[in-house]
Amino acid sequence: MRCKKIEKWVSDEIDGSLSRKKQRILAGHLANCASCRGYKQRLERLQGEAKNLPLPALAPGYWQESIAKLKANLEKAKPAEQKEFKFRPRQAPAFFPGRRWAWAGAASLLAVAAGLYFILFQARVPLETFPVAFADQVNSLYEKIGDNSDLEEEFNSVLKASIREVAGESDGEVKHLLYGNSFFIESLSDEEVQLLDAEISKVLNLKI
Amino acid sequence: MQTLADDKLIDLAKSGRIEAYAELARRVQEKIYHTIFGMTRNHEDADDLTQETFISAYKALGSFKQRSSFYTWVYRIAVNLTLNFLKRKGREKGREGFEDNTSVYDRVEYAAMSPEGDSLKKEFKEMLEEAIESLPLAYKAAFNLVVFQGMSHGRAAEVLGCAENTVSWRMHKARKMLQDRLRPHL
């Protein structure tokens, strides 16, 4: 074991940071090495003397005065919470000149997308293309009928009767102009829809 | 305030309660003062730097994440401020300075501080203080924390912001320098 390494271990041992294993090796070395024993003794004396170096004689009440002085200094100093909660505008990403513009742009895009959706997709739903009041009437009628086949039949028979009355056509000729045909429904007048609604409501024992 | 735990005091201090912060400072001020004094060996400097330490810590309290204890954090501020102060003052003499026996060290008034008037002992203590004063700053800081403040290498490393093994080596080298210088008197 080299004495230079042992000197480092002696220092660690004085500070209480030498492992047990190294302590055993150190003890074995010191038992056989007068030079290292002398070094250890000198360090121990050094340690003892250093720990006993005098501290300044402080006036009675020094610590209390020191705290009072600190409080006075703190009053002058910037309060901690101001630093903590100080508003700092965030840097916007480089590709946006400002966050407000980014939000405005996003909102515009959303509005355009919503508009396109209604134009391109919702328009394909036939009833949605009707004027609002008319569409409401037709929707109301369809809701009443629902999946009820009797009511569907009633719907068809009312329409056929109406057509026959106006045009004198046979059942066979108006067979394709029946319930569920959106193009046909769209061609109905408000009065015809109201009539259909009234007839269906009668069947359902409802009043318009 | 005196009965509150440190964490609670820190929260109050963060919200601007000076009384809470003063209580925290009161709890640690002696150790901080002695740490600084151990490095400057001058009461006036230690007094000023202690105040500066607590004011700096107060201003930075909002950024204190409490990953370490308040005391470790303040110790670190104190040591850094003191090292900067000593550098500014040009007191660091480094290894060359260590070999230079002329010291600008402000001597402690032993007559007022030490009850024993033994001149030999007094002389040795003065030499020891000079020798410690002449240590390079990094070694002096480690020596101060470990020997005077009784910190473990791990705790000192935390305060100094370095590895535990670095503290271990600094302590070894500091002792070696002191031993070499004071050997005729040891």
Task: Write up this protein.
Helices cover 67% and strands 0% of the residues of chain A. By secondary structure, chain A is mainly alpha-helical. The longest helix of chain A has 22 residues, at 99-120. Chain A starts with a helix and ends in a 5-residue tail after the last helix. With 186 residues, chain B is mainly α. Chains A and B meet through helix 1, helix 3, helix 4 and helix 5 of A and helix 2, helix 3, helix 6, helix 7 and helix 8 of B.
Brief sketch in words of this structure:
The complex is a heterodimer of chains A (208) and B (186). Chain A is mostly helical. Chain A has 10 helices and no strands.
Largest interface: A-B, 42 and 58 residues
Mean pLDDT of chain A: 78
Morphology of chain B: elongated
Which range best describes the helical content of chain B: under 10%, 10-25%, 25-40%, 40-55%, 55-70% or over 70%? over 70%
Average pLDDT metric of chain B = 84
SS-based class of chain A: mainly alpha
- Determine the CATH topology of chain B: Arc Repressor Mutant, subunit A
- Largest sheet of chain B, described in full? none
Classified by CATH, the class of chain B is Mainly Alpha
The N- and C-terminal alpha carbons of chain B lie at a distance of 48 Å
Biggest sheet statistics of chain A: none
Q: What is the H/E order of chain A?
A: HHHHHHHHHH
> What's the total helix number of chain A?
10
